[in-house]
Specification:
The complex is a heterodimer of chains A (458) and B (374). Chain A has 458 residues and is of the alpha+beta class. Chain A is built from ten helices and 24 strands. Helix content of chain A is 24%, strand content 24%. Chain B has 374 residues and is α+β, with helices and mostly antiparallel strands. β7 of chain A pairs parallel with β11 of chain B, so a sheet runs across the interface.
Chain lengths: 458, 374
């Protein structure tokens, strides 16, 4: 039996008898044909299916979106049922007058008689066809309407909790429950209420009171969230490889605390000067330059170990990577040749990389060739960290946030200090603890006393 | 800069069209309603269309929505951005890309272009009437304008130049028809940006039909967007027998439009803008210049939901270690067809390679060329 999508007569149950013929095992098939809504257009393009074969749909659910003559049209289901066949693939052209989708509807639930004649009762036909609550038409599927009819419930008195205030089966059941005062059991077996454990027992009423205190029925907590599995692709897949390789490196950690009080003051003085030149000055250019000065004394930290662990290559350039948090995740662009850059030049380059990073336009040359990395995780938070070395490098430093903490000065007085923690990780195959400690001390001394950087600046 | 200038006297001596913000615009009397967005953000404005389409009952009321956007390219629901526009140029010029929910072709918006959306019930959906209204309004403003509506729902100036394009969306109970109107948009940027440099693309996404365009400003330099909006609103008000009243709305105000910010967020996701591109294939070749030689590279890719489903790169033998090439191809599969993603991916993979400067420069050269395709 074919039904026209845009024909409203399908809704009027009142003056018709509908015959659903079923035979054991077969369900009645109801096909929806895409009726020619656009009179002067012969073709439609099937753009996007909202459902797939096997899905169950309710009346008014969106089935698909179709494009025709500059208009995008949403087609919704007229029936509850199960999608059995999509006659078109995505992006195929659908033809007017031909079936679009097959929906299987269940003629009668539970019992399957040979012939099931649905007749509307003599009373209030109008109630069931034009359901108006506060000026809105009531939405309810045929199954729900039948349930209401069978129980002599006026749909106008039921509050719908479904989409578009649709009345659902649950709403009818709740309405019934309120009428009879019954607590509807989820299944017949739930009539038997298990005895509550002693701690939860309601205190026994005095014997002279005939009233019973209602005992709460314990219901299992239902959580309908579902696990979601997604494949790891693209950039994340590459990161998985890198990090797996990184963990093959025997890491050791070394942490320390840096008093940045003097540097904070210096930066405050420098900021307006940099601003005049159009550059935003953060702490990172100082950290990076100090690291480079340290690497000049301890070049092993700017090296690379080959795959067979036979040779160490001391890199001439200090290409210091700065970990950046972007939409995709962790990206590490690097500032090239820090050893010949001034603090201002480093700041300028950082501005450029940050702008490109947030626009998602970093190039391959910015992202490759790094020899040493600093990660300023402190801008997000944290004090100590355990950073993972990025191959083919051999060392990395993670900088915590700057906190104002009380410290003792030389005279034994307490003063306000700007303290930042640094956590280094290094490749223990070629770097030993002493080297790391000495490098860290040197780096620390440059930052705690910025004037000392002047002596060693190239 | 977002709010329109104070009301001016109409040339014909009719009362000014008042513009006031009004919090409860949903409560206005039935019949017709004219609203204007105070935002120039294409995503926020498209979200307003979605919101009205999904939430408002238009049985007794029709709505005219007026909006303008800062530079953006808007593609139709079923289009392929790589086929339609120069994404690279857009990134450089910071021109946004948006995908609307209605069908039709690609358009360029800037503040010299006005957008009109006519909301009605599905039954009362009538594009020709709407466009005739616009033409009537324009002719009332400037009787000498030679403009007419074609049967493809375009508005042409001097029977030659397109000044307006149309698209529509039909839902279960509501429908909207929106159109553009070129007042004084930047035609140079428009033509540069709507020219795709990407070769070898094959898909059955809806292609745009290119047309010569002209600004109304070129026909009459005294015309401004303000005047056009005024005139159209007045004509609409007259035809719907309502007050000359334009309600300003803020498309980020959750109290007036609850849930709107989720809608604009969705419109900005990669999954919507790029991921909704119908399946397409890329089959192209390019030359790479390395030291003293020129290399021929052939690339074939299938892209579905904006992600590379299958990828094949044909390189001269032994130019790069084959294991490395297959590693690249494997990583690209499933990855977004996106230059940023490809750059990040390839840079990360390079960490796993032997530390050889020549290898690095070859690798970077290949990856840069690959990202040019995206």
């Amino acid at each position: 039996k074919y039904v026209c999508v845009f024909d409203k007569s399908a809704f009027k149950f009142s003056h018709q008898q509908r015959l659903f013929r079923t035979s054991a095992g077969n369900l009645f098939h109801n096909k929806i044909i895409l009726f020619c809504y656009f009179m002067n257009v012969m073709l439609e393009t099937c753009v996007y299916w909202y459902i797939k074969e096997g899905d169950s749909v309710s009346q008014f659910d969106s089935i698909c979106e179709v494009q025709s003559d500059k208009a995008s049209v949403t087609i919704t289901s007229r029936y509850d049922g199960i999608i059995r066949k999509l006659h078109y693939n995505l992006d195929e052209i659908a033809y007017v007058g031909k079936p679009l989708v097959d929906i299987e509807i269940d003629a009668s639930k539970g019992v399957a008689p040979e012939e099931d004649v649905v007749e509307t009762p003599a009373m209030s036909h109008e109630e069931h066809t034009h359901q108006e609550i506060k000026g809105h038409k009531t939405l309810a599927t045929p199954a729900v309407r039948r349930l209401a009819m069978e129980n002599n419930i006026k749909l106008s008195e039921v509050v719908g909790t479904g989409k578009d205030n649709r009345i659902l089966k649950e709403d009818i059941l709740n309405y019934l429950a309120k009428q009879t005062g019954a607590i509807l059991p989820p299944s017949p077996k739930a009539e038997i209420i298990p005895p509550l454990p002693k701690s939860e027992t309601v205190p026994a009423a005095p014997k002279d009171k005939a009233r019973k205190i209602p005992v709460p029925v314990s219901r299992p907590i239902v959580f309908s969230g579902k696990d979601k599995t997604e494949p790891i692709t693209g950039f994340h897949k590459a990161m998985v490889k890198t990090m797996s390789a990184a963990l093959k490196i025997p890491h050791f950690g070394y942490c320390d605390e840096i008093d940045l009080t003097q540097l904070v003051q210096l930066r405050e003085e420098m900021k307006p000067l940099a601003q005049i030149r159009g550059i935003k000055l953060s702490f990172m250019p100082f950290f990076i330059k100090a690291a480079s000065l340290g690497l000049l004394q301890y070049p092993i930290l700017n090296a690379s170990l080959d795959e067979s662990c036979q040779n160490v290559t001391y890199k001439a350039s200090h290409n210091i990577g700065v970990a950046m948090d972007t939409e995709q995740g962790l990206i590490v662009p690097n500032v090239k040749n820090v050893q010949v850059c001034s603090v201002f030049e480093i700041a300028s380059e950082l501005n450029r990389l940050q702008a490109l990073g947030s626009a998602g336009q970093l190039g391959t040359s910015d992202l490759t060739g790094g020899t040493f990395t600093l990660s300023n995780i402190g801008t997000i938070g944290g004090t100590y960290a355990k950073p993972v070395i990025l191959p083919p490098e051999v060392a990395i430093g993670a900088l915590g946030k700057i906190q104002i903490l009380p410290r003792f000065n030389g005279k034994g007085e307490v003063f306000k200090a700007q303290i930042m923690n640094v956590s280094w990780s290094a490749d223990h195959r070629i770097i030993d603890g002493a080297t790391m400690a000495r490098f860290s001390n040197l780096w620390k001394s440059y930052l705690e006393n910025p004037a000392s950087m002047l002596l060693d600046l190239k | 800069a977002l709010l329109p200038s104070p009301p001016r006297r109409e040339r014909r001596g009719l009362s000014c069209i008042l513009r006031t913000p009004k919090a409860g615009f949903r409560d206005t009397a039935s019949g017709g309603l004219i609203i204007q967005s105070i935002s120039n953000d294409v995503y926020h404005n498209l979200a307003v269309e979605d919101w009205i389409h999904d939430h408002m009952n238009l049985e007794n009321r029709q709505i005219l929505f007026l909006w303008r956007n800062s530079p953006a390219v808007v593609i139709g629901r079923h289009q392929n951005p790589w086929q339609e526009c120069n994404l690279k140029l857009m990134r450089q010029k910071n021109i946004k890309l948006a995908r609307r929910r209605s069908g039709g072709g690609t358009v360029y918006h800037d503040l010299g272009n006005i957008n009109l959306t006519f909301f009605t019930t599905r039954k009362k959906y009538e594009r020709m009437e709407n466009l005739k209204l616009v033409v009537k309004a324009l002719k009332a403003l400037r009787p000498q304008l030679n403009i007419h509506v074609t049967d493809r729902y375009d508005i042409l100036l001097d029977r030659q130049y397109k000044i307006s394009g149309t698209a529509a969306k039909l839902g279960r109970t509501t429908a909207y028809h929106h159109c553009t109107l070129l007042c004084n948009a930047d035609k140079f940027v428009l033509s540069d940006v709507l020219k795709s440099p990407y070769k070898g693309l094959k898909s059955n996404a809806t292609p745009s039909v290119p047309a010569s365009v002209k600004n109304l400003f070129e026909e009459d330099p005294s015309l401004t967007c303000e005047m056009l909006l005024d005139a159209i609103a007045e004509e609409y008000a007259m035809q719907h027998q309502i007050d000359h009243h334009i309600t300003l709305i803020n498309p980020t105000d959750e109290t007036v439009l609850p849930g709107i910010n989720n809608k604009s967020k969705e419109l900005q996701t990669w999954e919507w803008i790029y991921g909704k591109t119908p399946k397409f294939s890329v089959s192209t070749c390019f030359n790479m210049f390395y030291k003293d030689s020129v290399l021929d590279v052939k690339v074939d890719m299938d892209v579905k939901h904006g992600r590379i489903e299958a990828c094949n790169i044909d390189l001269p033998e032994e130019w790069l270690p084959p294991a490395l090439c297959s590693e690249l191809v494997k990583s690209l599969s499933g990855s977004k067809f996106c230059p940023n993603e490809t750059t990040a991916l390839s840079s990360t993979l390079l960490r796993m390679c032997p530390q050889d400067d020549e290898l690095h420069s070859k690798w970077n050269l290949l990856c840069e060329n690959m990202t040019m395709l995206m």
